Amino acid sequence: PIILPPFIGFVEYIAGVRFLQQNIPPLRWLGRRVAHIQQRLAGRMSFDHWPAYAQTWQELVQLLSKRRHDIVALSGDVHFSYAVEARASRRARMLQLVSTPLENKLGTQAEQLIIRQAFITRAWYGGLFMRMLSMMRADNNRPIPHSMLFQNALAYVTFKQNNAGEYLVQQDYLAV
Questions:
Q1: pLDDT digits (tens, 9 = 90+) for 85-103
Q2: 23, 29, 137, 143: least surrounded by Cβ within 10 Å?
Q3: Is the whole-model pTM more than 0.85?
Q4: Helix and strand tally (H, E) in the chain?
């Protein structure tokens, strides 16, 4: 995924930011040490998403800052499904719908860790404001807990344009 759930994305972003990289010799040495620790942590935690790569992340922020129209990204993750919105300015936003592959199983401990972080539904870091989008059950129009799915499901997604020209996303999940 390009945009991660807010807390997970923030942690990966911090792992990719290179603090203290100035040309002042003592700070340069300390900056290299901190960067080395960040890289080791990112490798151990399998941080391989966009927020962990500062240069590419800034290109994404610049792209969204200059756009006049929304971007819809369809992506996948091996752990869970979710939907998120990101904005760099008032002009355009990125809507990302993340799907998980069929037959995926997440361990109980990992699932609980993800659910605990899911209480943070909004964040601002690295020039983007992100918020999780609600997921709804198709059978009774009730929200799906934590706006995340950990099991196999099919979704019916509808985009409706409002008077301001923004798209409202309605996601109805079947077999949840």
A1: 999 987 788 999 888 766 6
A2: 23
A3: no
A4: 4, 8
